[in-house]
């Protein structure tokens, strides 16, 4: 089977690299007599039905038997308080420069002790949906948090009888299972915004003082991505889809962007049914360094409800819903008020049936990677022909924050650089740079940049973006040189003329210089923990010096 939670007695030692002080502390909590193991998805549903504050809508789950749920299962709503997004500020990674490991471990140890008199649930799920990569993850969460427990076993794959057999037959890794301890009621004067502590190399995490479901989902994916990275895969916070263009002719593309950038919209687009399209996932997958194949990590989608008014047929696939409104329809039935009217970042765990063409793995390598940016000096699409620059544009991916993230420290500028659109990295950035560079270099993957915001003062619409993607997929895109920018081309697009006026040239150069300063800071910040090869920085510096 994939990962391990049982050991020969002679393996149980401080010399076993799968053990650490933090992991042992987290795992031990799971065996307390105040912890009850969840037996089924149906039990999670019935417990969530009875949980205080649950809103039971009159909407029913589509094809409930597929999820081992009874006929007539209702869509449940669970609303939190003021925090309705991820709190990146709360994250701490053991072993990173500037992290006081001892102090953090003591805080978590005391937090676990303080809850000895509180009843908890525990459950196990599979992360990774192909026999080449299936990881077992365990969650421990207080009773009273049944809605998050229920969403967890729907978002990931619950270890039912069928998947237990698949898991036991999957490829084995010399890694321990993932263990996540969660306590939303945690408070501490030093951590007023919550605390999330990761032990990356030992697959353990504590999520404290945070009740947003996305914290549990992303903590699980964060550890699974790190485990995959250690075992020959490239972790991807993005979407992947494959077009069938003819007999034995396919085009496989991946898109990388922060929540709200268009990643899910692009991945799940049906293109007016003009193509036969298979979707791997819109948020989390891994790519094999060995053969370029890709594997999805979760069956469901954790989607924004902002684009789903109650009349939208997509609401049919909602399983659970978080942080939305509820009202009565003309028949007096309880239905949803979405479109972020109640608050920003309303969310749903949405079933895989939202995409009838869903697959869990893609055997063929990628044809292209699209970096999604929100950057006003970029036309709707660029092509980057040099592997080093392709990787560096991904590393300096410029975008904007959205309501998906709860920002503790407010800044005037919404525009940020988020390397590879991955705010969940818990290992040195240089390792991720090297992994993507090798993908571009060895697997002959084309690189494109999409701007899904404004080019100058004109908005790039969803239709504009899908149109240029379709031109690329059909090999109809005729790219031309992008001014004097080395190894970069653009696709002339109606309504988005590129005029190299003095003002535009200066704005573009300033944008490239912002990226250069970011790269230079990486080389020295935190004693060079996230530094990349100096030759890469030199390559970007050469690009900037040749501009105008």
TrEMBL record:
InterPro entries reported for this sequence: PEP_carboxykinase_ATP (IPR001272), PEP_carboxykinase_C (IPR013035), PEP_carboxykinase_N (IPR008210)
Associated pathway: Carbohydrate biosynthesis; gluconeogenesis
Catalytic reactions of this protein: oxaloacetate + ATP = phosphoenolpyruvate + ADP + CO2
Alphabetical list of Gene3D superfamilies matching this protein: 3.90.228.20
EC number from the UniProt entry: 4.1.1.49
Coiled-coil stretches: none
Leader sequence residues: none
Keywords: ATP-binding, Kinase, Lyase, Nucleotide-binding, Pyruvate, Transferase
A GO molecular-function descriptor: ATP binding
Pfam families given in the database record: PEPCK_ATP
A Gene Ontology BP annotation from the UniProt entry: gluconeogenesis
Superkingdom field: Bacteria
Family statement: Belongs to the phosphoenolpyruvate carboxykinase (ATP) family.
Protein name per the record: phosphoenolpyruvate carboxykinase (ATP)
Source organism of this protein record: Vagococcus humatus
